[in-house]
Specification:
203 residues; 32% helix
């Protein structure tokens, strides 16, 4: 594998905007700026400077850290198992069951999105060097949390979300009613009927 790959054309000319974004993320503990010398001293042969790609969306720039091409970080990651998301068929089955068991009473659906979900999972400091990128000569940016473009980010997010968002939510609401909650990557699908269930979901 290569130790450093140049950024994609989509990131060229956006360095100042990306610098501002990274500085804000550094304030939250998500990234760290470091000199080349310090990075080499700390990480040695475990330093991989990946190419960045920028996808322009309606309201933001989505930064993709290419952990596959050149640096081959993703090629070395082995997920222990796979996370499966519910499908439309499971939602239909859930809604039919709720309609039968509740005498046709109306049900309410709530859909939520967790912003920057993959960035909510911390990464061990000894692995930060494997999630490095560059905006200017002489310094590197290290990702200290899960990173969009690194294969393990979704794996660890799914486990955190299943434990904290889904399971903990069920434990807290266990006696309040018959609420259903499904997790789709960084999206939540919640279903309720009675007023108390709706209040609990909102809480």
């Amino acid at each position: 594998p290569e130790t450093e790959v140049d950024n994609y054309v989509s990131a060229k000319g956006l360095e100042s905007q990306l610098q501002e974004t990274f500085e804000k993320e550094a304030e939250m503990g998500w990234m760290r700026e470091i000199s080349d010398e310090e990075a080499k001293r700390i990480y040695g042969d475990r330093l991989a400077v990946a190419a960045l790609k920028v996808v322009k969306e309606k309201t933001k720039l989505r930064v993709v850290h290419d952990g596959t091409h050149g640096v081959a970080v993703n090629n070395r990651i082995r997920a222990r198992d796979q996370a499966r998301s519910p499908t439309a068929g499971e939602i239909r089955a859930l809604m039919r069951e709720k309609q039968r068991s509740h005498g046709g009473a109306r049900r309410f659906l709530f859909v939520g999105d967790i912003a920057s979900a993959h960035r909510r999972v911390k990464v061990r400091p000894e692995d930060w060097g494997l999630q490095a990128c560059r905006l200017k000569p002489g310094t590197l940016w290290l990702n200290c949390v899960g990173t969009f473009g690194i294969a393990s980010a979704g794996y660890w997010w799914s486990r955190l979300a299943a434990a904290v968002v889904a399971r903990l939510g069920y434990y807290m609401l266990a006696d309040s009613g018959d609420t259903a909650l499904m997790l789709y990557y960084d999206d939540l699908f919640m279903e309720a009927g009675r007023a108390t269930e709706i209040e609990d979901i909102c809480a």
